[in-house]
Design goal:
- The protein is of the alpha/beta class.
- The protein contains twelve helices and 18 strands.
- It starts with a strand and ends with a strand.
Length: 398
């Protein structure tokens, strides 16, 4: 069976390789169930400052070429310089590498995706923009982040008719590059658009909420995604607000994993008392919350957790296997068939050490970095020893 194929279009001033990084959440959801084709824009706009948003210093360390699909010049009127060259490229790609089922587009790439979908949906549409004589069928779906309408008067004809292509629109409420109103304007052009708004700026969020929305949207077009039935769960405790600017490297790394945004709050499964760093708070709330998830969304075959989430994965394994106090007697969920724990560790609070008193027989894989400066490898190894049927994978890294 042929895999669905998705064309991926980067934003202004970026390129295909950077877009692979920016869209890592999307790629993780799709996995190997679809073929993703990342395309470079044909216009080199030289070195200039662009909004990197969710891209870290390590992402950009090797340098990159600033590419675009067209160049906007403001004068007496708007002019999309190079759009003809871009559409010639797109036409060739559609013919040589297609057919494509869907398009993923970010910012200028999202605007281009709309143009492509419109030109394919209305073959023979008269106007200055064209994909030539391509026989490519209409696009089946669009995933658009930071999308906007091409603000060139002579292209207004593209937006006269409602576009019936199923679409998911991702937009940041604090986006200063493509203001929310511009995104809402283009959403109105679609028939029954799905919209995901998040508290943040000009980027594709890596949050569990966004992953769930994308997964649900893509499932009808890529059925294997739905078959995996993975669920990402947010911790219920809000710890503190943060701003990534001005942080040291370790704090910046921690924050960047959650997605840079304005006003984003850190959520956690527990926090430590300031007066006594060995005492944890909020764990009971998290256990009760996860129990409700097990009962309402389960049953689940396995559990995967990273860092504090790895600790919680082990806690759940212990509660479900040994039915310790802390788990409601009404909980009927069976123990997990497997656990994958990355950079996990044990609770040091004496109140909770009973969780590790008996061996756990849930088959488990434990991954950790030998040079991890946040969760020392010895802590991950200590947790691994609680599991009687454990495998481990260590790397020389953090």
């Amino acid at each position: 069976m042929t895999k669905p194929k998705i064309l991926c279009l980067h934003g202004f001033g970026e390129n295909a390789e950077l877009f692979k990084i920016r869209s890592r959440n999307f790629r993780a959801i799709v996995g190997d169930h679809a073929e993703l084709v990342y395309l470079d824009g044909p216009i080199d706009i030289g070195k200039l400052h662009t909004t990197t948003g969710d891209l870290t210093e390590s992402d950009l360390s090797n340098g990159f070429t600033n590419l675009a699909w067209w160049w906007m010049r403001r004068g007496w009127s708007y002019e999309a310089r190079g759009i003809g060259k871009t559409l010639d490229l797109i036409s060739s790609v559609l013919e040589e590498q297609g057919p494509f089922d869907g398009i993923l587009g970010f910012s200028q790439g999202a605007a281009l995706a709309i143009v492509i979908a419109e030109l394919l949906a209305q073959k023979g549409l008269e106007g200055p923009l064209s994909l030539g004589n391509t026989a490519h069928p209409p696009i089946k779906f669009l995933v658009l982040a930071g999308a906007f309408q091409m603000e060139v008067p002579e292209y207004d004809y593209l937006y006269k008719e409602t576009l019936a292509v199923p679409s998911l629109h991702i937009m940041g409420t604090y986006d200063t590059v493509v203001e929310p109103e511009r995104s809402r304007t283009v959403q109105a052009y679609f028939d029954k658009p799905q919209v995901f708004e998040f508290v943040g700026g000009h980027f594709i969020p890596q949050s569990p909420q966004c992953a769930r929305v994308m997964r649900a949207f893509l499932a009808p077009f890529i059925p294997e995604i739905d078959a995996e039935d993975n669920m990402f769960v947010d911790a219920p405790n809000v710890l503190q607000p943060y701003d990534i600017d001005g942080m040291d490297n370790m704090a910046r790394e921690t924050a960047s994993r959650m997605g840079k945004s304005l006003g984003r709050t850190i959520k956690g499964w527990y926090w430590l008392q300031s007066a006594d760093p060995e005492k944890v708070c909020g764990l009971e709330t998290s256990i009760a919350y996860l129990e409700s998830v097990l009962e309402t969304q389960g049953p689940f075959d396995g559990v995967f957790g990273f860092s504090q989430g790895g600790l919680m994965a082990a806690v759940l394994c212990a509660l479900l296997e040994h039915r310790y106090e802390g788990l409601s007697s009404a909980c009927t969920h069976a123990r997990f068939k497997f656990a994958i724990i990355a950079s996990g560790y044990k609770l040091s609070d004496s109140k909770w050490t009973y969780l590790y008193a008996k061996p756990l027989h849930t088959p488990s894989l434990h991954m950790y970095g030998i040079l991890d400066s946040m969760i020392h490898a010895s802590k991950s190894i200590d947790l691994r020893h609680v599991f009687a049927n454990a495998q481990e994978q260590s790397t020389v890294g953090a």
